[in-house]
Design brief:
Order of helices and strands: HHHHHHH
Radius of gyration: 24 Å
Low-confidence stretches: 1-5
Number of helices: 7
Number of strands: 0
Largest sheet: none
Mean pLDDT: 77
């Protein structure tokens, strides 16, 4: 069991990371009850008097945020893209998820971005450009 030590956490409400026991403790097969007993025993050994909270004190708020803001807004954005650009172009933007995940991981979480990761963005961007660019017939009709 590990306890993180960021400065933003107080000693009054510690957060612990529960780890699976080594394979030699239970063998290849163990029941959920055995695993739960082991994890509870480890937690009580580390903090015998509690309090214990599952997923923090605002699990419901985190779930509501995920449902409302992430899911609903993602669907609204998806249907807007379908209306504005069509199904082919809108579906090609799904390939932007890995580069955007890498970008936000770097910006918000300080994740390391390797040069090979940046090179991997090039074929993704090229593919999106090829799918969403206007065709020759479209550019001739708009200029005529």
């Amino acid at each position: 069991m590990r306890r993180p030590s960021p400065a933003s956490l107080s000693d009054r409400q510690p957060i612990y990371s529960l780890q699976l026991p080594p394979d030699d403790e239970f063998g290849n097969e163990f029941t959920f009850e055995q695993l739960a007993e082991r994890l509870i025993r480890d937690l009580r050994h580390q903090n015998p008097h509690g309090p214990y909270r599952l997923c923090g004190s605002s699990f419901g708020a985190a779930l509501a945020y995920l449902v409302v803001f992430v899911s609903v807004l993602a669907y609204l954005l998806w249907f807007h893209l379908l209306t504005v650009s069509g199904a082919t172009a809108a579906s090609s933007y799904h390939f932007m998820m890995p580069p955007l995940g890498m970008l936000f991981g770097w910006l918000l979480l300080g994740e390391h971005v390797a040069p090979t990761d940046l090179v991997g963005i090039v074929p993704v961007a090229l593919g999106i450009y090829l799918v969403t660019r206007p065709t020759n017939s479209q550019s001739k009709t708009t200029s005529a």
